[in-house]
Amino acid sequence: MAEEETGQQYACWKCEKTFWAASELGSCSHCGAPASALSLVAPTDGELRVLLVDDALIARKKIGGILKSLGCQVVEAGDGEQGMALAAGNDPDLIVLDIHMPKVDGLQMLKALRGMERFASTPVVMLTGEADAQIVAQALQLKISDYIRKDDPIESLKARLRKQIDKLKAK
Questions:
Q1: What is the pLDDT of residues 92-127, one digit of tens each?
Q2: DSSP codes of every residue in 50-97
Q3: How open is the CA angle 135-155-82, to the nearest 5 degrees?
Q4: CATH class, range 43-170
Q5: Residue-wise DSSP of 106-171
Q6: Which listed CATH number (3.20.20, 2.40.128, 2.20.28, 2.40.370) goes with 1-41?
Q7: Cross-strand bridge partners of residue 11
Q8: Most buried of 54, 66, 67, 169 (most Cβ within 10 A)?
Q9: In the chain, where the domains are located
Q10: CB 124 within 8 A of CB 97
Q11: For the segment 123-142, what is each residue's pLDDT rounded down to a tens digit?
């Protein structure tokens, strides 16, 4: 692999160029388009692509680390608006979605995704720091795959996420 071909390969919707970057990008290295215009190039070797949407950086690092340890390629978004853009550009196999976020919250994003044919059956795991019965009921009506708490022990989070990944790999 050439020196410039290390890290992750990205594609920009705006300038239609592909390029490699050693770390997560905030913008296109060619035209400067924002990160929401970038998509990761398709995963290799049966790797599943997971979209992780959470406004809390610590939660993204924790859940993202677990997903990576399970062999997934993780695409991260800090809010529902960016999450919608990244979902459209990355065709995730699984979406892990926080409930409470600025701009577009998790339930609004989930409703929008379920309204699109391409995401109607994409597995979605809702992630939250609290368990409000009314919110859980709304999420269940929108056919979520699981509902997990951010403060669950790491092994519990890992086991529940592994269950979703195993279901996808069995297809």
A1: 999 999 998 888 889 999 999 999 999 999 999 999
A2: EEEE-S-HHHHHHHHHHHHHTTEEEEEESSHHHHHHHHHHH--SEEEE
A3: 45
A4: alpha beta
A5: HHHHHHHHHTSGGGTT--EEEEESS--HHHHHHHHHTT-SEEEETTS-HHHHHHHHHHHHHHHHH-
A6: 2.20.28
A7: 18, 39
A8: 54
A9: 1-41, 43-170
A10: yes
A11: 999 998 777 778 777 887 88
Query: What b/e readout covers 23-55, taking b as 16+ CB neighbours within 10 angstroms?
Result: eebeebeeeebebbbbbbeebeeeebbbbbbbb
This prediction has a pTM of 0.75
Q: 150 with 62: CB under 8 angstroms? A: yes
